[in-house]
Give the backbone structure.
Amino acid sequence: MNTQKVQNVCYIIYFVCWFFVNSDAMTRQQLKNSGKLMKKSCMPKNDVTEEDVGQIEQGKFIETRNVMCYVACVYSMTQVVKNNKLSYDAVIKQVDVMFPPEMRDAVKAAAAHCKDIAKKYKDICEVSYWTAKCMYDYDSANFVFP
């Protein structure tokens, strides 16, 4: 993907996030729809297919480097990766901004339960992947991932 297309996708995601910061949080369906933009951007960057990543939200985590880095790409686009590290504080902030009120406490509980995963791995791809898997395992009903 060329630089201009990446910038355009980033602007779109920024606008979507800005819009929802300045309005009510998204519904679960709106979260999923906004995730499609991230998915479309992150899949080619990490050489993954729909078969590789299309069922993460249903708990199908394929343990390959490309899938791990796809998860890290999505987390980066949601601005929860700071200085190449997954930021628990940024996760909580994004949950407050983007998630519907009825999901916030559950997603925050999953994030709190899984925040120490980052201590086990140095690589952002591994940290992101295992954190996402932990959050799914902790509360699959409230797990949303593109």
Summary: The first helix runs from residue 3 to 21. The first strand starts at residue 81 and ends at 82.
